């Protein structure tokens, strides 16, 4: 109660100050008592929502009763060129035993398959909307033209389809795809629209890393959800303007998952696919693991860590050496609060004896890039439905920035604190992989010195990135708390 009183007093003082700040002796307009009450109610509701996001509902421990589901690898169509068909569909899914709930999925009722590309592939994807509402197909992290990117301008109406074509020019990485219709992204992702993309190249195939899909190369899509008293999904009841979080974790759509592994090194491809929750991943034993890749490719060398934090849309590839453990060990992936995310069941079988190379990539941030002047400034501010970038909400008719194709520029992103202190925002740019130059003037940590398309930014923090677009088009940049994105925390850059 004391917090609410202090907030109200602060809000009143702000309103009084704003009412008395007119330079003339008589205010132009007097604030009616009813108007002040309305302002106070709006601010109180806004603060309540903001506080509920700061004090995030804890997750339930995974009981480990269900073996982790592995997304199927999508086979190409039998047509000329590499052609995939990806359908956005509605259906029903049994998440809790014996109970079906309405869900969305790609080529199925919930989540989607994994698309496998190799660098140099010329790819065609036939996208089909079989939903009862418009949607888009956004290829998160993929460097494609604006016309193929699948932003809010590219909505497909129910029953429509579109074929996109592109050449894969970027290096090995773990990407993903999801919808991006303006104002509906959060709900459609929440209902199940998300899938994976793997890119391989000559370098990745030569490193000898674990690469047996579903055996020692495991994708992990982390998504928290709220289920109602009937164990069904209901986004409208669960939705929070400051980011929808839930107490029930699904990994690859699996409730209470466990992962059975052999005694070998296992590569885990972590994707934070949640609407708003941040995760700090660690082992319950305190043992270390190594991170080998960021959003858009390999690090130059493995980085040994005891934990790694991912905000919504970020990815990291890590390797855990299970040959150090046996079936008697109680081992699990946990979060920062100690809640069990994924228990491991270690078999008595020896797996592949692999080594992690000391050199993985030749990623460089040049002195020239470090010393480029800042040409674009992005200020993130607000909470709930009062979010903005550079003082503006998203307008599909407004171009916020322009940039030349193939030219590297430095963007400076600042997270402006609000009266509650602010919150972490995950910042994402479409159509490009970029390099983090600095955080508050200091070099980024070792595990961020690789290609990125998303990053976390704390309140009052400034991050500089060097970014180049390979293709032309209009691309979004936005907060990847999906409700913030839907509420207008998004801008547009036109690449010419």
Automatic annotation (TrEMBL):
InterPro entries: Cu-oxidase-like_N, Cu-oxidase_2nd, Cu-oxidase_C, Cu-oxidase_fam, Cu_oxidase_Cu_BS, Cupredoxin
Protein EC: 1.-.-.-
Entry keywords, A to Z: Metal-binding, Oxidoreductase
Domain Plastocyanin-like: residue ranges: 89-203, 229-324, 373-496
Top enzyme category: oxidoreductase
Any one Gene Ontology molecular-function term assigned to this protein's record: oxidoreductase activity
Entries under Pfam families matching the protein: Cu-oxidase, Cu-oxidase_2, Cu-oxidase_3
UniProt family annotation: Belongs to the multicopper oxidase family.
Identification of the protein by name: Multicopper oxidase mco
Source organism: Sporosarcina pasteurii
Lineage, uppermost ranks: Bacteria, Bacillati, Bacillota, Bacilli, Bacillales
């Amino acid at each position: 109660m004391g917090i609410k009183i202090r907030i109200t007093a602060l809000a009143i003082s702000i309103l009084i100050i704003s009412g008395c700040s007119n330079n003339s002796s008589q205010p132009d307009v007097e604030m009616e008592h009813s108007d002040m009450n309305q302002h106070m109610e709006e601010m109180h509701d806004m603060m309540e929502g903001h506080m509920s996001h700061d004090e995030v509902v804890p997750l339930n421990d995974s009981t480990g009763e269900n073996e982790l589901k592995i997304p199927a690898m999508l086979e190409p169509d039998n047509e000329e060129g590499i052609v995939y068909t990806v359908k956005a569909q509605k259906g029903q899914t049994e998440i809790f035993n014996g109970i079906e709930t309405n869900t969305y999925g790609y080529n199925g009722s919930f989540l989607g398959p994994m698309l496998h590309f190799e660098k140099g592939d010329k790819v065609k994807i036939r996208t089909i909307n079989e939903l009862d509402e418009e949607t888009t197909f956004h290829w998160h992290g993929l460097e494609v033209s604006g016309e193929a990117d699948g932003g809010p301008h590219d909505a497909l109406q129910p029953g429509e389809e579109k074929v996109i074509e592109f050449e894969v020019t970027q290096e090995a990485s773990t990407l993903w795809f999801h919808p991006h219709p303006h104002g509906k992204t959060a709900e459609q992702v929440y209902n199940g629209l998300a899938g994976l993309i793997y890119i391989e190249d000559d370098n990745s195939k030569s490193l000898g890393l674990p690469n047996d899909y579903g055996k020692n190369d495991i994708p992990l899509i982390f998504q928290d959800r709220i289920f109602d008293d009937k164990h069904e999904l209901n986004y409208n009841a669960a939705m929070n303007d400051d980011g929808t979080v839930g107490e029930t974790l699904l990994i690859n759509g699996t409730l209470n998952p466990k992962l059975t592994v052999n005694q070998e090194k296992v590569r885990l491809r972590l994707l934070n696919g949640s609407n708003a929750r941040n995760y700090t991943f660690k082992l319950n034993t305190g043992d270390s693991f190594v991170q080998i890749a960021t959003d858009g490719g390999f690090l130059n060398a493995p980085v040994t860590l005891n934990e790694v934090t991912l905000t919504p849309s970020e990815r990291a590839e890590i390797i855990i050496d299970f040959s150090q453990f046996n079936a008697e060990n109680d081992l699990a992936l946990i979060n920062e609060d100690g809640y069990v995310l994924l228990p491991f069941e270690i078999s008595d079988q020896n797996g592949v004896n692999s080594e992690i190379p000391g050199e993985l990539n030749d990623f460089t941030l040049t002195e020239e890039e470090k010393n480029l002047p800042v040409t674009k400034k992005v200020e993130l501010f607000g909470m709930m439905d009062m979010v903005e970038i550079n003082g503006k909400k998203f307008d599909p008719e407004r171009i916020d920035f322009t940039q030349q194709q193939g030219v590297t520029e430095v963007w400076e992103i600042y997270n402006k604190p609000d009266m509650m202190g602010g919150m972490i925002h995950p910042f994402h740019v479409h159509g490009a992989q970029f390099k983090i130059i600095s955080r508050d003037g200091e070099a980024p940590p070792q595990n961020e010195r690789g290609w990125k398309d998303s990053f976390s930014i704390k309140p009052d923090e400034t991050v500089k990135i060097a970014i180049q677009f390979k293709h032309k088009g209009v691309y979004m940049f936005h907060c990847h708390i999906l409700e913030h994105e839907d509420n207008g925390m998004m801008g547009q850059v036109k690449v010419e």
